[in-house]
Structures are given as C-alpha cells and as structure tokens.
Amino acid sequence: MELSENRANESVRMLRSEAEWRSGRIRRRPAVFRAPPQTGVPITPRKRGWFRRFYGLRSGGINPAGFHPSQIPFYLILTPVVAFMLLPIIFIFSTAFKPAEELFVYPPRFFVVNPTLKNFRDLFVLMSASDVPVSRYLFNSIAVTAISVAVSIFISSLAAYALSKKRFRLKQTLFTINTVALMFVPIAVTIPRFLIIARLGLIDSFWVHILPALAMPVGLFLLKQFIDTVPNEVIEAAQMDGASDLQIYWRIVLPMIRPAIATIAILTFQATWNNADTSAMYINVESLKTFAFYLSTLTATTSGANVVAGQGLAAAAALIMFLPNLLIFLILQSQVMSTMSHSGLKG
Amino acid sequence: MSRPSRFRNGLIREGAAYAFVSPYAVLFVTFIVIPVAVAAMLSFTYFDTIQFPRFIGLRNYITLLTQDDIFMKYVLPNTIEFAVIVGPGGYALAFLLAWMLAQLPRLPRTVLALILYSPSMTSAVTMAVVWQTLFSGDQNGYLNSFLLNLGIIQEPVQWLQSPQFLMPIMIVVTLWSSMGVGFLAMLAGILDINPELYEAAAIDGMSSRWQEIFYITIPSMKPQMLFGAVMSIVGTFQAGSIGVALSGSNPTPRYAGQLIVNHIEDYGFLRYEMGYAAAVSVVLLLMVLLFTRLANRLFRTEER
C-alpha cells in the first residue's frame, strides 16, 4: 500500500494538534498521543540528583513525579485499607500450602509454617478417583475461556468499528440500546434466559458456556469509545488508497485499539473463567462442567469431620482460580488504564 | 424501478456496516433483549413451567405489593439497606481511594491500585469458600479464635447463621470486592485531567484540596463518574446472591440476608412460580433503571 506519504502528513497534523493542546487552544488531548496514563505530566523532569527529583515542583498534587512529604497522609490512610483488601487473598495463598496438621491446629494459625504442595496433589490425584478427574474441569474452563475471549474480541470489535466509523441508519439507535443495556443485570432475567436456552436446545451443550457470554455491553461500549479516538482522516486516507472495509478493520483499526482489546480480553476472561452458574443451571453432564463450578461444590460435599481437610483443597482450588486472573491483569494493566480514560458516559 | 434500486444502493452502501454489527447484534438480542421482553410478558401471567402461561393481568404485581409479607417485611428493606450502603457507599469509597491514589507517584500507585482491584477479580462463589472458613461458627473459625483470644467475645459466634451478623458481613464482603472497572475508570479519569486546570485554580486563589475536588476534579470527569456510578449500581444488584452463598441456604436464616435476587430464585426455581418470579425481576430491573436515572441526573454532561 502506498500509505507512507499519507501517514507522514498524518503524523505532522497530529503533532500540530498535540502542540495546540499543550498551548491550551484545544481542551481534549489529541487521541493518538494520549495513551499511557503517566503522560499526565507535560514535562518529564530530567534526573538532577535525588533531592531535586524528589522535591521538585510537580511533586505535589495529581500524578506527582516523585515522593513528597505531603503524600505521607495518603500513604497512612491507604496502607490499612490495602492491607484489609489483601488479607483474604493472603489467606488463600497461606491455606493452600498448609499441611493437614496445620489445618487442624488449635488455635488456628493464619500463616503457613511448613508449606507443602500436598493440597494440590490431593486435588488432582485423590479427588480424581471420584467420577470426573479435576483436570477435566480445568480443561473445560480453559477451553471455554479461550474461545469466549477470542470470539468476543472479534465480534465486539467488528460491531464497535461499524458503530464508530461507518454510517448507517440504525447506528444511533443500536448504540443507545447498548448504552441502556450497560445497566442490564443478568441475574434478574435468569428465568427467561433459562427458557430461551432450553428452547434453543443448548442445555447440556458445550456452547452454552460461550454463547451467552459473548454479548457484553460494557465491552462494546469501551471499544466504541476507544475507536472514536482513531482519527477519521486515517481511515479516509486508507479508503482513498482503495482499502476495503475488512482491510481497514484488520490493518488499521485493530492495531490502533490494542489497549481496548486488552481490556475486553480481561473483562471477558473474568466473566467466563469465574462463571459457576452456567454449569450449575444448564449442564447436567458432569464432564461438561467447569472448574469454577467444581470449586463451588468443594465445600458443599466435604462436610462433617472432613470440612477442615476440605479447606486445604478448597483453598488450593481457589488459588488456581485466582492466579490466572491476576497474571493476565498484571500483564495488561497499563493497557487497561489507557482504555479506562475513554470510558466516560455522557448522560 | 427507482425504489428497489435505491434499496439496493442502500444495501451496498450500508450492507457492510450491518454485516459488521450483526454477529454481536444477534447474540445481544438473543441473550439480553429477548430475556427482558419475556420477563416483562411472563410477569402478567401465571406460569408453573408445566402448563402454558395463563394471562392474569396485574395480579402478580398486586400480590407482590399487598400480600407478599416476606417481600415487604424482609426482602425490600434488606435490599434497600444493602443497596444504599454498598451502592453509594462503595461508590464514594471507590472515588476517594482513586483520588488518593492519584496523589501518589506512578509506581506505588500502580501497585496499590492492583491490590485494591484484585478482590474484584475473584468471584463471589469462589470466595464463599474462603469466607466460610474465616467466619466459621465454631471456636476453630479464624475470626472467632481471634476475638476469643482478645477476650472480646466469651463463646464462639455463629457469624453466618445469625440474623444479626449476616447482613453486615454481606456488606463488608461485597464492598471488599467492589473496586472493579468503575474504580479503574475513575482513577483514569482523575489522572487524565489537564494539570493546568489545577494550576490556574491555584493562581485564582483556590487553596484547599476539598475545593479542588468539588470544583475541578469531579466536574472535569463527570463522564467517568457516571460510568462508575452505572457500574456500581449494576454491581450492587448483581451481588445479590452473596447472602445465600455465605449462609449456604436459600432462604437465608430468618430472611436476614434475603435480597430481591434471592426472592426471584426462591419463587422461580424452588417453588416454580415463574410468572410471579418474573414480576419480581421486572421490579428489580425498574429499580436499577430508577437508580441509574438518578445518577444520570447528577453527572450528566451538558452538550455544548
């Protein structure tokens, strides 16, 4: 494609608008230069010795460049809050690695002393003796989540591209309906959903895990808002060069909205990976249920004297549930933050 | 001759756009629009899942308002108590935390934000396992053992089975996991405000941080505030199953933690009165709508 000259002109134009923003002539910061959140500081201070760096002009107020004594109160308030938030998560880690005698110890100890992998071994070896091996639940979860994330990204971004950049009659209506659907509470329509899924013949099918999870109004909304920031000129230039809609979508829009895609990936991932309701309601075949469901049964099935030993297994399973969430968010967090600055909802 | 060709032109011009939208639209209609419509229709019928739904007009709603003692005595007050504390309370907390985080440099901010966000990555069901251990009713429970040691209580408390404690625990647990997408949106919104606004205000003589919050921060990020509010309202009503997950039974002990969502499940899946359950669902959706309208009123961005 002979895009290079257009691209060059484009970047000159965008640099100019960036300059205009800096001088305060336009209020919104130009889209393309917006990304990572730390660019809220207009001038990055050069390294000038630790004292100047930490006691610089921009060290107070929003998004400071370094430490400043005025930040101490915030640390003092935030630390206990954060510690409280962290407590249950530390508890999962700690309990998952506890050997049996530490689970039974009285008084109960919060932290593990002699960490062991026994709970994980038991989870996969002992529990497999029952009817369906745990690895089967895990495999189902992984397959369901991977397919959901991929398909959801694809169909939401296609729709978002059309809603943002194409012109068609129902465009405004569709977007408004989707915005209203942001307030949709799926749990409220459990019953009609059940009737519809039964009518579609999706009960006890693998696809019931995936299909209902794909239409996510928040996802479409965030993607559309983000694509709005892609300059129309870029797309017009590509059209002049004879690129088809699909080419524009694939080669121009998709690469430019990576942060938003990362965000949708995380949201879909969390929604499907953590979902135990689908298995509980629509699936009667044990081998098609997911790991989240298996975890929710762990406490119900281990009762009586077994309940304490069950804690270790449950914590190990909870840890397996939690870790992928954490890892994916860690990898993608900066992308998520730059998407979130476009999340605004105009009433 | 002119009309079909115009139609065809339209199809050529707009067809691609519809093709792009349609996969999403089909799923959206199937799993969101139709269920809502079906709920609305069923709410006017008697439906026990065996016979075909029989139209009974507004009787479900009348029963709900006049004869459903449990709904009026427990479910509605519980839902309002839960929603008011977790909704606006959690929302204000999310904003304050986001604002305080924005006052910190990038690295500590990212680490702390991640920790605050991480509980929302867990699901209620997953965590119920953990909460049940922490709040276990015998002296082996972590909270019981801790309080017994300190001498605050003399004998173990049945935290999750006592009507007195179930609701506060539900609220704490939900608040714990409520720093989700809305919180991130607000954090991003605060960081995105042009710092020159603050400098200009400082020159104009604005001195206190509170003035900054109310005259600059919130007005500059109204769209994110609204997004956060919608997410918080939806999250609050969506979290309804927590009471049942914690106490392990529906209905919850003496209806102490019974929320509107549990009431729907109770009637829909335990008593098979689907029509009545649908009427309750419609009331729930209307409540969400009402609260969102309210948030809209507060944080609307005026068109310029």
List its traits.
heterodimer, A: 347 residues, mainly alpha, MetI-like fold, 3 domains, 16 helices, 63% helix, 0% strand, globular, B: 304 residues, two-stranded antiparallel ribbon, 14 helices, 1% strand, flat
What is the fold-level CATH name, i.e. the topology of the largest domain in chain A?
A: MetI-like fold
Largest sheet of chain B: 2 strands, antiparallel
Q: CATH homologous superfamily of the largest domain in chain A - what is it?
A: MetI-like
User: How many DSSP-defined strands of chain B?
Assistant: 2
Quote the beta fraction of chain A: under 5%
Biggest sheet strand line-up of chain B = 1-2
Order of helices and strands of chain A: HHHHHHHHHHHHHHHH
The best one-word shape of chain B is: flat
Write structural notes for this entry.
Chain A is mostly helical. Chain A has three domains: 1-30; 80-121, no CATH class; 134-340, MetI-like fold (Orthogonal Bundle), CATH 1.10.3720. Chain A contains 16 helices and no strands. Chain A has helices at 4-22, 49-54, 72-96, 100-104, 118-125, 134-165, 171-180, 190-199, 211-214, 217-227, 232-240, 245-256, 258-273, 277-282, 291-301, 307-340. The longest helix of chain A has 34 residues, at 307-340. With 304 residues, chain B is mainly alpha-helical. Chain B has a single domain, classed as Orthogonal Bundle (MetI-like fold), CATH 1.10.3720. Chain B is 73% helix and 1% strand. In chain B, strands 1-2 form a two-stranded antiparallel ribbon. In chain B, helix 3 packs parallel to helix 8, helix 8 runs antiparallel to helix 11 and helix 11 packs antiparallel against helix 14. The model of chain B has no long low-confidence stretch (mean pLDDT 84). The interface between A and B is large, with 112 and 109 residues.
